[in-house]
Amino acid sequence: MDTGEVSVLEVIEDDNWLWEPGEIKVVPHGRPATIDDLRRTKHKAEIVNGEMLVIGPSGGLTANAAGNILISLHQYKRQHGGGRVFGSRLAYILDLPNRQAICPDVSWYTGPDSDGGYLRVAPVFAVEVRDEIDHGDEAEQRMAAKRADYFAAGTQVVWDVDVLRETLIRACHSNHPGHATVYRRGDIAHAEPAVPGWRFRVDELFDRWPAAAHPASRAPARRVCDATPVPPAPRCRASHDPPCFRGARAAGGGAALLAQQRGAAGA
């Protein structure tokens, strides 16, 4: 008997779906969607009001902003511990009347281990970065409902990040869900009390590299051959080795190379 169920693959291969950044598509199973359906999607998806919502990939500016927040939280974790940071492919399983699964763009989690499965405790901090589709009256209602679901599940702080139009962060807290603290360029945002002591420069939303991870901010690598510094040796056209290693091999070691170069300098 035909139940009217449609596979996720049929939906995403539909010619009518143009894959706009962040586009949301309902998978019509012909019945309430389940966690088993979520396991079979292999895509970013949520279950809301019994429907599975498959979410398309983000645009470049949106993904860059989410990635920089993720990197900053990873750096915080390495220094302070206290939780784990996840990207957008992670699904949290929630026990709410209208929502069974939610996928933040970035999240900070302090709950128990999952042994490789889905996490069944909400993150204490969640980040939602808007794509172009996330603007307008309908989108505002959808995002407000999603924030309410976060808070109902136990999330303490939700960031609503917009890098496409308003270029700001709205930080919403569970104890004041109707109020948002707005951070703009030049401001330093936080997610207290969910991530104690962590700070994030709003300008980093637009940086190609966060300041602490930018290659130019690292000290230049030093090539060491021996405990005693030696003058640079000329490159040999026949080899691509660093000059110090070629010279050391030819002269029988770093000390011999040093004596050879000093003799040449005094000649």
Summarize the structure.
With about 270 residues, the protein is an alpha+beta fold.
Provide a descriptive summary of the structure in words.
The protein is α+β, with helices and mostly antiparallel strands and 267 residues long. The chain has three domains: 8-55, no CATH class; 60-90 and 104-215, tt1808, chain A (Alpha-Beta Complex), CATH 3.90.1570.10; 222-267, no CATH class. The chain has six helices and 13 strands. The protein has helices at 8-12, 35-41, 60-80, 137-153, 243-251, 254-266; strands at 24-27, 45-48, 51-55, 84-86, 92-93, 99-102, 106-109, 125-129, 157-162, 168-173, 176-184, 188-190, 199-201. The strands form three sheets. The protein has a six-stranded mixed sheet with strand order 4-7-8-9-10-11. It has a five-stranded antiparallel sheet with strand order 1-3-2-6-5. The longest helix is centred in the N-terminal third of the chain and has 21 residues, at 60-80. Mean pLDDT is 78; it is low at 212-259.
Question: Top keywords for this entry?
Answer:
267 residues, tt1808, chain A, 3 domains, six-stranded mixed beta sheet, five-stranded antiparallel beta sheet
Gap between N and C termini? 97 Å
**CATH third-tier fold name of the largest domain:** tt1808, chain A
- Approximate strand percentage: 15-25%
Number of helices: 6
According to CATH, the homologous superfamily of the largest domain is tt1808, chain A
Estimated helix fraction: 25-40%
Number of domains: 3
Overall average pLDDT: 78
**What kind of sheet is the major sheet?**
6 strands, mixed
